[in-house]
């Protein structure tokens, strides 16, 4: 540990802010009419009672994580325009989710579903598919939590604190109050986090450009940097070969975002369908902040920031904290650092709760203790949330941080493979559990292969070099790249209906009764004997039958 | 974003009127995903290349469209 260059004023402000949210975290258990926290609806979904404002802060804190705030500008710092994909990504995600999320909310509300895998279990009556969806969710979420630690670490490095012990303390405290207060803790802390982030970003984008001679000079500096590098893909504008990769990355990332268990947790904690819809209209306000933050990457170039080198490797994630350190007075740098670090705690808490709920509902209750009482479920989830956080800390301490970044890249591709089951499942009975399982498996395999097969010339990595796959590998004579996850998803969707005609139309494995037997069984029995219906994903009568069957089943 | 009392809205299938409005939600996708139309430096705005400010402009536009669709498809009021 090196204390020589510690910024004491910034550190003091940082610690005060951190102490404030810790108090809030513990107080949260008594907030918003919590009667008792010994069931999963209360602990894991905040009593499904969050109104529009709380949901807005909760989802905002959940989706726009500290890592995003550190990594997106770092990407612009390193690669230029490509990093700006986060803006179209977070613009288009909300109109798309506007259509789907209220539906998922209604079904989950009626049947008491806590996780996306609960929905799959009820919808398809297939324990195997639900298990696969649950495990996919957990695996995709874990590295995301670890990345939040990397966000905190970047801030600490900029303050001059090296070493791992502050992270262990921070996550220890977080683990205790999440255990205590459940989803209410991050919901309450999100208010502080977002107020601070808005304050810091608005000050930063007004103040820093005036110090650097305006945006003209900032973009000129960025231009100069990128024209001086040998890498062909970087620049203030997209190269011709990168255009498709940019759009597909934005589109694929948007499709993936609300499949993550922590997003579903945020949606299901809302009080009503209208709460969700209003939020889909209001959440893009965070995208403004994200877009402005992204430009901080160029400001760092103009300010001549050099990333901190640890273990011989420059850490690009430190550029924004360093820029704050250089530009702001010490006390305000402390506020900025606090904002980023608290910004890491909110999503980390929600993610660990979401992963814990998946564990409890779809593994513990399904396979280990079928007769678990609500209190046992809540206890299992609380303990699991501790394990998940401890796991994330261990991953950061023991493994190369690059490993977490690779895993998160993989996480985006694999969570996309749950889209056909969850989204199509909300609209149609056309797909069958085994077909979806086959699509998931083959889509996953295809995605993993493509990621493995991607080298990165800039970083010198041979495998898992990035989310963009070269079309030339499919035999096209071009340099154009495309988002790997989207290709894998296409493979998945092509496969999913295929096994339908072979195995009839029974919902679930033979001999097993779905837990929510749809009362339209006579209708389905007649269709089971016939051939598969023509492929139509959203025919006119379809949603009606869907809602009717679900309504009757409850 | 005030809360409304309609906690248990009817959740039937969308009517044709609602379906028609939801097409508006595709507009932001078309506006932001066709990158070649905005991958240029000019016209600049306060020194920011078109590529950046064009995409930022879509944020309020998208919000506006979503609010429109939300108001048009809200069911609590009609029943």
Account of the 3D structure:
Chain A is mainly α. Chain A has a single domain, classed as Sodium/glucose cotransporter, CATH 1.20.1730.10. Chain A contains 23 helices and 4 strands. In chain A, a hairpin with a 2-residue loop joins β1 and β2. With 79 residues, chain B is an all-alpha fold. Chain B has 3 helices and no strands. The chains are: A mainly alpha (554), B mainly alpha (79).
Compact description:
Chain A contains 23 helices and four strands. With 554 residues, chain A is mainly α. In chain A, helix 3 crosses helix 9, helix 7 packs antiparallel against helix 16 and helix 7 runs antiparallel to helix 18.
- Spell out the helices and strands of chain B N to C: HHH
Largest sheet of chain B: none
Number of E-type strands of chain B? 0
> In total, how many domains does the architecture of chain A comprise?
1
> What's the Cα radius of gyration of chain B?
17 Å
Which fold name is given in CATH as the topology of chain A?
Answer: Sodium/glucose cotransporter
Order of helices and strands of chain A: HHHHHHHHHHHHHHEEHHHHHHEEHHH
Shape of chain B: elongated
Notable characteristics:
heterodimer, A: 554 residues, mainly alpha, Sodium/glucose cotransporter, two-stranded antiparallel ribbon, two-stranded antiparallel sheet, 23 helices, 69% helix, globular, disordered C terminus, B: 79 residues, 3 helices, disordered N terminus
């Amino acid at each position: 540990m090196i204390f020589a260059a510690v910024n004491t004023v910034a550190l003091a402000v940082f610690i005060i802010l951190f102490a404030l949210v810790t108090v809030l975290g513990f107080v949260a258990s008594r907030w918003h009419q919590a009667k008792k926290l010994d069931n999963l609806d209360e602990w894991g979904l905040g009593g499904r009672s969050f109104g529009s404002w709380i949901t807005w802060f909760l989802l905002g804190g959940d989706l726009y994580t500290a890592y995003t705030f550190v990594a997106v500008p770092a990407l612009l710092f390193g690669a230029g325009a490509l990093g700006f994909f986060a803006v179209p990504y977070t613009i288009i995600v909300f109109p798309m989710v506007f259509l789907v999320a209220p539906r998922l909310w209604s079904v989950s509300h009626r049947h008491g579903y806590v996780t996306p895998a609960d929905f799959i279990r009820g919808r398809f009556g297939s324990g195997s598919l639900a298990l696969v969806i649950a495990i996919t969710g957990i695996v995709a979420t874990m590295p995301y939590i670890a990345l939040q630690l990397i966000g905190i670490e970047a801030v600490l490095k900029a303050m001059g604190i090296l070493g791992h012990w502050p992270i262990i303390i921070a996550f220890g405290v977080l683990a205790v109050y999440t255990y205590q207060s459940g989803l209410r803790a991050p919901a309450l802390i999100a208010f502080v986090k977002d107020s601070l982030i808005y304050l810091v970003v608005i000050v930063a984008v007004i103040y820093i450009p005036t110090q650097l001679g305006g945006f003209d000079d900032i973009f000129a500096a960025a231009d100069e940097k990128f024209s001086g590098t040998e890498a062909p893909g970087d620049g203030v504008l997209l190269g011709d070969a990168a255009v498709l990769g940019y759009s597909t990355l934005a589109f694929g990332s948007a499709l993936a975002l609300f499949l993550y268990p922590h997003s579903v947790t945020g949606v299901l904690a809302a009080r009503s369908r209208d709460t969700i819809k209003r939020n889909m209209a209001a959440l893009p306000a965070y995208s403004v902040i994200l877009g402005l933050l992204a430009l901080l990457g160029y400001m760092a170039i103009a300010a001549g920031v050099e990333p901190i080198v640890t273990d011989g490797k420059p850490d690009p994630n430190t550029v924004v904290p360093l820029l704050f350190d250089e530009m702001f007075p010490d006390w305000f740098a402390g506020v900025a650092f606090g904002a980023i670090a608290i910004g890491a705690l909110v999503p980390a808490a929600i993610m660990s709760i979401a992963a814990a709920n998946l564990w409890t509902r779809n593994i513990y209750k399904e396979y280990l203790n079928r007769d678990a009482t609500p209190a046992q479920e809540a206890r299992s989830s609380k303990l699991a949330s501790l394990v998940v956080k401890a796991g994330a800390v261990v991953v950061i301490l023991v493994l190369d941080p690059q490993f977490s970044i690779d895993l998160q890249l993989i996480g985006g591709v694999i969570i996309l493979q749950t889209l056909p089951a969850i989204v199509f499942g909300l609209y149609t009975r056309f797909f069958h559990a085994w077909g979806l399982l086959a699509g998931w498996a083959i889509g996953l395999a295809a995605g993993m292969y493509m990621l493995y097969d991607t080298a990165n010339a800039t970083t010198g990595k041979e495998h898992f070099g990035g989310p963009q796959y070269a079309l030339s590998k499919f035999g096209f004579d071009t340099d154009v790249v495309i988002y790997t996850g989207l290709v894998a998803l296409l493979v998945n969707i092509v496969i999913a209906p295929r096994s339908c005609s072979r195995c009839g139309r029974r919902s679930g494995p033979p001999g097993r009764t779905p837990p929510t037997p749809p009362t339209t069984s006579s209708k389905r029995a007649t269709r089971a004997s016939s051939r598969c219906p023509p492929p139509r994903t959203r025919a006119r009568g379809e949603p009606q039958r869907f809602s009717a069957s679900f309504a009757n089943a409850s | 974003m005030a809360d409304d009392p309609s906690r248990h809205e009817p959740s039937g299938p969308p009517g044709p009127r609602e379906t028609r409005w939801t097409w508006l939600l595709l507009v932001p996708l078309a506006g932001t995903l066709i990158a070649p139309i905005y991958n240029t430096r000019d016209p600049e705005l306060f020194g920011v290349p078109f590529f950046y400010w064009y995409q930022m402009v879509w944020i309020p536009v998208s919000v506006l469209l979503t609010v429109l669709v939300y108001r048009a498809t809200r069911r609590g009021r009609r029943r």
